[in-house]
């Protein structure tokens, strides 16, 4: 086969025959002009090698004038051999032809490398949806260990962090986590969360993935409850040859250089409450409650450890493919926190044109130690029964165990504002051991019935569980006073209370999917008709049983002095508190849900370059729940049902081989979370407020528009710019509701209608060994809700009125940006990345009152990662996170009157806003080895 060679010669300097010259060039695909990355260029006489960089370029320096034999080789392409006469520095471009071989009566079973960066770019380009894809190779090179942290690198995505600073949940395009859906290999999975539908993303170890797909527009064949986006976690696939991968690493969290890690024993924790062990009417004894999980020991410099292993191959003449992968992470995290708790009643303003100001009653100063033990396992089998029939089995198991110790000092702030007097300081030590797991089994079949008809199906069983056994706090208190001379004094600690709580929940899905595909020829062009549907039965149960142990008084009736957990003595007061709360707690419930859906969609070319995909989806929702609350309790049980008709239309205009324009419309929904509907108080999820449900919640309906222009120049380069618009009917958000004159709780509610729109820009560009990658998203949303205004009228009377206030959606940041500086030297085997993530300010929590919402401050997080090849099969790698020690800060946007005087609060260092919370995490580091056969 003829080999085409085009050489461009550029004369840079005139030189003598003995001068030293430079040869630069690029290696491209002869068919489409794409850069060939990682190809080998050999220059003979003498022999020297070069590897093409990420833009397909190569370079030889210090060459004497003369003739050189040059050879270009790349897997899947014909070799190119030629001779160049180098009399001066020059630049060349070589085009390689793809190799091809005609085979007869041979069945080829091949697997695409879905983990490569090149595959991710091509998949984005060819997708029917607006999507962003992160490959396993990109994940491996990133600073991230979990899917939650990987997601923060994707355009339009910001993450919510846990109290250890690690990512936990994703907000996509300003849409709260409730509007997003998580899939494993295209199939929805249940959630271990005790209240919500969304899946906590920190349960997924990143090294089990083939790729991570974030899909931002829905076609009719996709489930409709994902208005922000779909996070499809594609697990490792069976390879077409033997692979063996392993990695091991160790590191530390810098915060434990300044404070000890506080640990407690988990082995003696009773996984079931006394009532579960002995019966619902059992009167618990004090001896039923172990004290071992409230005995703490300090550990200096705890070591973080990470490991993983995968192996795969094909068997039976390549008909059977298999891969097994395992991941293990044991990480210690910590934080220090300050939080100021507001009074339910703000300080009244002087008139109705001025906002009320906050009043803080308590200041909490807390330190955390958290041990995260994360395990993941995945098995994939596929069997090609014939060229027309394939069966696959996916099995995934994920487990995240969190052991958390919290030491909290609650200082009553009033004592520093009234001069001489006294107040209480409360100490609380909390032990929390939480176990979450997800297991999923999917059997799939693909059948090519004829050239025009095919079908595929999936049968799915999945289960998610969460256990929070013996969760509680040991509280003690003492008085701190200020005498007439301004000196402070304090009294001995008195034992206050000992709360113990057992919670667990199970979420089980049994589902079936069927898709039929018909490809007729109409009007001389091939058309695709797709029909299908799903049926899912979900069963969720929840258990919550609380016990309160009261301190035993001294014989003389005086309160018990606290001298440590082993000397503390408790009783039940009143005596029937020994029954616990399960028998009448609406938090003990079962919830059944049936989703039945059907769809039809059509795909064809309207014009030569204009693709159309459109159709309609029907989703029926039927729900029933029953709680153990008393019969008179409003919301003890309920039934809810509705049907949604959801049209969509997607256009893709292909400008040329590298450029396209997309325009999409689709209608979607968001169902309330389970515990959003059931009215039971729960203090285990929120740090500072009790959460409750709302039986009057409606589901949300959303109209979505998307536009994107995209360019894929070749190689790993890409540029995308797009816009989106969403109109939400009955959006659901959490807001503080006043329950008593001194109490308030977080409760979900519908907030009228809302709009959400924005623009996204994504770019990746390589220049030889260096590259830049980034994205920026601007999002604007608007929602109107009633807010209280507490003021004194002209007669001096206290008055509360309600006014409309416009604001963004809760959790939505106007500005989100990512920027990464990349270095990749293929010849030396070096990859490095310096990655920054910017998240703009957003509402963290809504208030009942105007302009008293809590805002999370804007933040920039800087991470670093690198790897170096040290032998043919071995690499060393390093990851460093939160290099800037970026804090999590929450503020109220009002002039700060708490910086000086009697109202002064700690940690207030800005006059233009009021700090209400600050959490510090400090950096963490990891160093490891990676093996690849």
TrEMBL record:
UniProt entry keywords in alphabetical sequence: Cell outer membrane, Membrane, Receptor, Signal, TonB box, Transmembrane, Transmembrane beta strand, Transport
Membrane topology classification: Multi-pass membrane protein
Compartment(s): Cell outer membrane
Family under the similarity heading: Belongs to the TonB-dependent receptor family.
Residue span(s) of domain TonB-dependent receptor plug: 128-230
Protein's UniProt keywords contain DNA-binding: no
Organism in which the protein naturally occurs: Pedobacter segetis
Record-linked PROSITE patterns: TONB_DEPENDENT_REC_3
Signal peptide: 1-19
Protein name, UniProt field: TonB-dependent receptor
Family matches, as PANTHER family: PLUG DOMAIN-CONTAINING PROTEIN (PTHR40980), TONB-DEPENDENT RECEPTOR-LIKE BETA-BARREL DOMAIN-CONTAINING PROTEIN (PTHR40980:SF4)
Domain named TonB-dependent receptor-like beta-barrel: residues: 476-883
